[in-house]
Amino acid sequence: VSILPGVVRPTARGWIRLASSDPLEKPLINTNYLGTQSDFNRLVQGVKLAREIFNTKAFSEWVTGKELLPGPDFKTDDDLRAFVRRRAESYHHQAGSCKMGSDAMAVVDPQCRVYGVEGLRVADASVFPVVPSGNCHAGILMIGEKVSDLIKQAHGV
To answer: What sign has the CA pseudo-torsion 109, 112, 116, 118?
Structure first.
C-alpha cells in the first residue's frame, strides 16, 4: 500500500522560454517545483499525514513490515525536509504556460487566440490559468472541443 502526498494547487510558477530563434532547439524550462516555502511546507506536512494515516487501526491489516520511504531513519522535521528536497516529483500535469485571461500575464483571450498574433490559437492545458486539482485530461478535451467549435464558427463551417 502506498500513499503519494502531493501539492495539488501549487503557488510556485515555473517558466518556459525560447533558447534561440532556432525552432529545432529545445526550449529552456524551469518547472520551479516547490519553489515557494508554502508548497514545500505543505508537502512535508503531507508526508507526516501519510505516516499518521498508515499508523491508524484502519490500515493495520494492510501495512506489514517497515516503512520504505522515507523510511524509519527519517524521524525529525529536518530529516523529512531533506527527504522532500531530494525525492519530490510532480504529478506531471503541467499547465498554465499560456494562461487565458485579460491581465498582463495572460497569453490568450477567452477564445484561445494568442494576443498579438493573427490566426493563432492555443488549445491545450497551457491555457489553464491555474493548475487543476485533478487530472487535466477531461479539461484538455473540453478546451479542444470548444476551440474547434470557435474555429468552425469563425469560418462559417
So the answer is: negative
Could you report the per-residue pLDDT of 126-151, keeping only the tens digit for each? 999 887 888 889 999 999 999 999 99
Question: What digits encode the pLDDT tens for the residues 15-35?
Answer: 889 999 999 999 999 989 999
60 lies in which domain range? 15-87
Asked about 93 being catalytic, the answer comes back as yes
Same domain, yes or no: 99 and 82: no
The catalytic position among 92, 93, 137, 155 is: 93
pTM for the whole structure? 0.77
- Non-local (6+) Cβ contacts of 13 within 8 A are 32, 35, 96
- Gyration radius (Cα) of the chain, Å: 21
DSSP 8-state symbol, 15: E
